[in-house]
């Protein structure tokens, strides 16, 4: 879609430059919202695929949503589709004609993947294959060979392989989610090698933010810290506190995604801070930041232990730093404080509702 006005250069009227067009699956998620902000800031027209739900699940992008009737301002547009529905994927790729596709959609909760393994595999693994095949078919039909594809990988694919983990480290997945991500990774490599598609895998280590889902351990902790500090909660129930992860800021990591698709050749990259911290360390930083002792509030619940545990993930992002020129800007302690600050403010707003009788303060112990 052309933007701006025509340019007069030496008396010759030239057509305005066209914006790049990006298509994002999983646009309503943490990464999708940060990536959308990044791309809009770079002048892109952004299209997002969303699943139909009886409740709107667009909270993370509401602040950048503009009604499409306001055509001259609305550079982000949403469309109903699903990675389990191949026809919708092909239709929207043909209609939108994107220059870049970012596949961020997934059933991304590791523990939940043990409870719904079939669905996880269908969305994460076969869903990626459906999207790649839709892209291949689109390129074959239209000749638009310049379209670039990004596949969101995960450090969980390394599983029980000892750290540090790099692009050359063997995968040893320990969950249906991780195994499905491995399949998506190799589908992407296969379509790159078999059909010459510009397709990249970003193997991102854990990345968090105030927009992280509340059932992920980091956000579960910072939400509890906010509620405990404000007096709305007293206990936090967790599983394995010795699991160690390489935690970074999601806002930094989406820049690496974009950089991968700006290179001359497609490739696969590990994106990580190269620091590893345990869940217990995260607890110490989060509770300590507000003057609390986590041991006074945390209880272990065996139901939060996984059937197959991943003990230690720590990335080696040498390649991304050298080739992409990428490096994280937000450190571990800064990330924890950022999340706690946001969740204290959220707890304060909840307190207003509790005091006014609109919320039950006893929903959690």
Automatic annotation (TrEMBL):
It is an enzyme of class 4 (lyase). Coiled coil: none annotated. Its cofactor is NADP(+). Keywords: Lyase, NADP. GO terms for molecular function: GDP-mannose 4,6-dehydratase activity. It comes from the Eukaryota. It catalyses: GDP-alpha-D-mannose = GDP-4-dehydro-alpha-D-rhamnose + H2O. One of its GO terms (biological process) is 'de novo' GDP-L-fucose biosynthetic process. The keyword Transport does not apply. Its EC number is 4.2.1.47. Pfam families: GDP_Man_Dehyd. Residues 23-339 form the NAD(P)-binding domain. Pathway: Nucleotide-sugar biosynthesis; GDP-L-fucose biosynthesis via de novo pathway; GDP-L-fucose from GDP-alpha-D-mannose: step 1/2. The keyword Nucleotide-binding does not apply. PANTHER family: GDP-MANNOSE 4,6 DEHYDRATASE, GDP-MANNOSE 4,6-DEHYDRATASE. Catalyzes the conversion of GDP-D-mannose to GDP-4-dehydro-6-deoxy-D-mannose. HAMAP family: GDP_Man_dehydratase. Belongs to the NAD(P)-dependent epimerase/dehydratase family. GDP-mannose 4,6-dehydratase subfamily. This is GDP-mannose 4,6-dehydratase. It comes from Mikania micrantha.
């Amino acid at each position: 879609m052309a933007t701006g006005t025509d340019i007069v250069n030496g008396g010759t009227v030239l057509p305005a430059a066209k914006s790049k067009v990006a298509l994002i699956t999983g646009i309503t998620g943490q990464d999708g919202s940060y990536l959308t902000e990044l791309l809009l800031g770079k002048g892109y027209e952004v299209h997002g695929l969303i699943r139909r739900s009886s409740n709107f699940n667009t909270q993370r992008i509401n602040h950048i949503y503009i009604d499409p009737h306001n055509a001259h301002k609305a550079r982000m547009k949403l469309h109903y589709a699903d990675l389990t529905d191949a026809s919708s994927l092909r239709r929207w790729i043909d209609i939108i004609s994107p220059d870049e596709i970012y596949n961020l959609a997934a059933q991304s909760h590791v523990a939940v993947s043990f409870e719904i393994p079939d669905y996880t595999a269908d969305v994460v693994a076969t869903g990626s294959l459906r999207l790649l095949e839709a892209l291949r078919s689109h390129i074959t039909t239209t000749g638009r060979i310049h379209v670039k594809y990004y596949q969101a990988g995960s450090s969980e694919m390394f599983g029980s392989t000892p750290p540090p983990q790099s692009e050359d480290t063997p995968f040893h997945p320990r969950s249906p989610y991780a195994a499905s991500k491995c399949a998506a990774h190799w589908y992407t490599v296969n379509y790159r090698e078999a059909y010459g598609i510009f397709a990249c895998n970003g193997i991102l280590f854990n990345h968090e933010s105030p927009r992280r889902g509340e059932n992920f351990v980091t956000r579960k902790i910072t939400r509890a810290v906010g509620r405990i500090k404000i007096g709305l909660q007293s206990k936090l129930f967790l599983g394995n506190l010795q699991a160690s992860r390489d935690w970074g800021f999601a806002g930094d990591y989406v820049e690496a995604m974009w950089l991968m698709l700006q290179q001359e050749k497609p490739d696969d990259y590990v994106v990580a801070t190269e620091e590893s911290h345990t869940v217990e360390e995260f607890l110490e930083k989060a509770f300590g930041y507000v003057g609390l002792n986590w041991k006074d509030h945390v209880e272990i619940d065996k139901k939060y232990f996984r059937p197959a545990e991943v003990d230690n993930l720590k990335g080696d992002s040498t390649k991304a730093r050298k080739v992409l020129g990428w490096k994280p800007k937000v450190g571990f302690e800064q990330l924890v404080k950022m999340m706690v600050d946001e969740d204290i403010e959220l707890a304060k707003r909840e307190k207003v509702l509790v005091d006014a009788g609109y919320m039950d303060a006893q929903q959690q112990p």
